[in-house]
Design a protein that fits this description.
With 127 residues, the chain is mainly beta. The chain has no helices and 11 strands. It starts with a strand and ends with a strand.
Length: 127
């Protein structure tokens, strides 16, 4: 089972921006509910942004107004644009996908609902 592939992480200063990308080499992400999760040392994994198969988007309160999740169907990509980054946004960001989640049913914060995961990309925000 091939994993999702993330890219775009890096080191950025407080207040800066990054755009993360998520793709898969075989299946079409348009048909999947995709979520971005982050894991910081000593903290539980946190779901931050979600997009369903009808491109409805959902956000955790901690990132609302700063992060934007979107799709590019032609490139089979899901993006997470992160603006006004804060030190507490640092962590490993994983994308996750699940085909069985019905569109329009809201955010899915539980990692257990997703069958497909990427290896993650590191985001570090310095003060």
């Amino acid at each position: 089972q091939l994993p999702l592939v993330e890219s775009g992480g890096g080191l950025v200063q407080d207040g800066g921006s990054l755009r993360l990308s998520c793709t898969h080499s075989i299946f079409t992400l348009d048909y999947y509910y995709v979520g971005w999760f982050r894991q910081a040392p000593g903290r539980d994994s946190e779901g931050v942004s979600f997009i369903d198969s009808q491109s409805n988007t959902y956000y955790a309160d901690s990132v609302k107004g700063r992060f934007i999740i979107s799709r590019d169907s032609a490139k089979n990509m899901v993006y997470l644009e992160m603006n006004n980054l804060k030190v507490e946004d640092s962590g490993i960001y994983h994308c996750a996908a699940e085909r069985g989640i019905v569109a329009g049913t809201g955010p899915r914060f539980s990692a257990a609902e997703y069958d497909y995961w990427g290896q993650g990309t590191q985001v570090t925000v310095s003060s």
